[in-house]
Design brief:
Elements lengths: L4 H7 L7 H4 L5 E8 L6 H7 L7 E7 L10 E6 L7 H15 L4 E5 L4 H4 L3 E4 L1 H5 L20 H13 L4 E6 L1 H16 L5 E6 L17 H22 L3 E6 L6 H10 L3 E2 L2 H6 L4 H17 L5 E6 L7 H16 L1 H5 L4 H11 L2 H8 L3 H8 L15 H19 L8 E6 L1 H4 L5 H19 L5 E6 L9 E6 L4 E6 L2 E6 L9 H15 L15 H4 L4 H6 L3
Parallel strand pairs: 3-4, 3-6, 6-7, 7-12, 8-10, 8-11, 9-10
Antiparallel strand pairs: 1-2, 2-13, 4-5, 12-13, 14-15
The structure holds 1,6-di-O-phosphono-beta-D-fructofuranose (FBP).
Length: 552
């Protein structure tokens, strides 16, 4: 394989573990903490998860653990969207497994959860793994979005594991994949299959978090990658002084990525979907907010700027949210009739005729491309694929129209020229930052320790992350403690609660305190490229969000 010079030197990087996991592996034991409950709806979660509800938190401490050397086979699955660091989770898991017993074997199921259903795997050995250590991507075994949710699928998983003598599965995924991991763990226990399931918190979106999961892996690298690009665009804008850049950022429903990038780059405007929802802001009021900021900067002869837009924004604008819910319902009930239609125009007409008056009005007000994007296929979890909705273009066009009206009325005298961007896929497979390389390796090693502790239905948890790796804590939390009941596909289901941006949290408050100044003045900051070698305060720092969240 041809490799770049950076890739070559990154192979040699030795990720840092928390102090407790640096101990000899036979000298670490799990310690049970207090029993847990659920996020909410505890009675229903308890009834649905009789074997895995209420389990204790786990932390690892020093202690004699001779049994850890028992021979084990483990399977690993990468699930959902790519996030930098996945290869290091597998490296940490592999190294833990082999440190305990060199005879242990790691099965990598290919192409996501479908790999186990189809019994498609490869054995991960040290030679194969060497080419992936400390690199981005999920290409070591591939990923996919197949859902593991039916009893038939669970039984296939059990049979495939039994065929290969697999004692435990590690599922590396986001909230939906870990919800399914919890259901699978519960199923295996209820059937006495003797197969453990451990999850690892992955997603660039940053929406899988609580006090025991301080950050999902990949968020650090992805936001630093986008922030570098945003900083470069800001500097370009400030040099040429002729464009307003509308930048849509990945992150699905949550605005954590947009907020973190705003904290790192101080753009003129950053929209936060959670705030839009809390204030029930309509699309036209958002457009007006941006147009007024453009007009104010124009008064200072600053006919340029940068606007950050979270990709899930439209789902939080009340009239569009209601519209999407109606479309979801409609598509679920009239799936066959809708699928039989050929052209996009026919599909639009089909939906338009069946909407309520209010949603019809909202739908009709949108440009044709956005209408088609709203009707595009849902992902396997039933989510609108917000990465396909061109909110950047929609807002740039609407702001331009509004500014024309303001010019005609004499309230705006500037020049407006816009460019649009979407940063998402650019960041998902970047070389992991030192933080993500260390964190992911620790999560994987720690996942093995949870397996060795005989645990199932747990999420690997490494905390105290704003401190140096040496001071990180290692342990696990039952996945059920992150769950609540939500309506999905018209049914009440147990799911991990998505962590959205908290408007009373420190990161948002810091942003809100500064945003007026950032809007009017030019306060850009330029984070530059991710650094892998050099002073620790440049190379090992994690996100501003985490630093603010953990500040006293
Ligand atoms: P996960 O939730 O699986 O981690 O994926 C996150 C994400 O990158 C979102 O930010 C984005 O909306 C979506 O995946 C894109 O999905 P796809 O890779 O299927 O295009």
């Amino acid at each position: 394989m041809d490799i770049s010079p950076l890739q070559k030197v990154r192979y040699a990087y030795q990720p840092k573990l928390p102090a407790i996991l640096r101990e000899s592996i036979t000298n670490v034991v799990p310690q049970k903490g207090e029993a847990t409950t659920a996020q909410s709806d505890a009675d229903q979660i308890k009834a649905l998860f009789p074997n895995t509800y209420g389990l204790p938190r786990i932390t690892f401490t020093k202690g004699e653990n001779g049994e850890i050397t028992q021979k084990r086979n483990v399977g690993v699955i990468l699930s959902g969207g790519q996030a930098p660091g996945g290869h290091n989770v597998i490296s940490g898991l592999f190294d833990g497994l082999k440190a305990a017993n060199p005879e242990n074997t790691l099965f990598g199921f290919k192409g996501g959860p479908s790999g186990i259903l189809e019994d498609s795997y490869r054995i991960i050995d040290s030679e194969y793994l060497a080419a992936y250590r400390n690199t981005g991507g999920f290409d070591i075994i591939g990923s996919g979005r197949t859902k593991l949710e039916t009893t038939e699928q669970f039984e296939v998983c059990a049979q495939v594991c039994k065929k290969h003598d697999i004692d435990a599965l590690v599922i590396i995924g986001g909230d939906d994949s870990n919800t399914n991991a919890a259901v699978l763990a519960e199923y295996f226990l209820s059937k006495n299959h003797g197969i453990q399931v451990i999850g690892c918190p992955k997603t660039i979106d940053g929406d899988l978090k609580n006090e025991s999961i301080e950050i999902s892996f990949g968020f650090d690298t992805a936001t630093k990658t986008y922030s570098e690009l945003i900083g470069n665009i800001e500097r370009d804008a400030n040099s040429a002084k002729k464009y307003w850049h509308f930048i849509k950022l990945m992150g699905r429903s949550a605005s954590h990525i947009a907020l973190e990038c705003a904290l790192e780059t101080q753009p003129n405007i950053c929209l936060i979907s959670e705030e839009v929802e809390a204030n029930a802001q309509s699309l036209s009021s958002i457009v007006d907010y941006i147009a007024q900021a453009v007009a104010k900067r124009a008064e200072d002869k600053n006919n340029f700027g940068v606007v950050l837009i979270p990709e899930g924004l439209v789902e939080f604008v009340p009239e569009v949210k209601a519209l999407i819910a109606e479309i979801n319902d409609l598509l679920a009930h009239e799936e066959a009739a809708f699928a039989a239609l050929d052209s996009s125009a026919e599909k639009i007409a089909f939906v338009q005729q069946r909407l309520s008056a209010a949603s019809k009005q909202a739908f009709e007000s949108l440009p044709t491309e956005i209408k088609s994007q709203l009707l595009a296929d849902r992902d396997p979890h039933g989510n609108v694929q917000v990465s396909r909705i061109e909110t950047d273009k929609l807002l740039a066009a609407m702001v331009e129209t509004q500014l024309k009206a303001m010019k005609a009325a004499g309230s705006y005298k500037g020049k407006f020229s816009s460019l649009t961007h979407f940063f998402g896929y650019e960041g998902r497979c970047a070389f992991p930052t030192n933080f993500d390389a260390d964190y992911c390796y620790s999560l994987g090693y720690n996942a093995f320790m949870l397996i060795a502790g005989g645990l199932s239905g747990y999420l690997s948890s490494v905390t105290n992350l704003s401190k140096p790796a040496q001071e990180w804590n290692a342990g696990g939390i039952p996945i059920t403690m992150m769950m609540n009941m939500e309506v999905r596909h018209g049914e009440n289901k147990p799911v991990i609660k998505k962590a959205l941006v908290e408007l009373d949290g420190k990161p948002f408050k810091y942003f809100a305190k500064n945003r007026e100044t950032w809007a009017r003045e030019t306060c850009y900051t330029y984070p530059g490229a991710v650094q892998y070698f050099g002073p620790s305060e440049v190379c090992d720092l994690t996100t501003v969000t985490l630093a603010l969240e953990q500040s006293k």
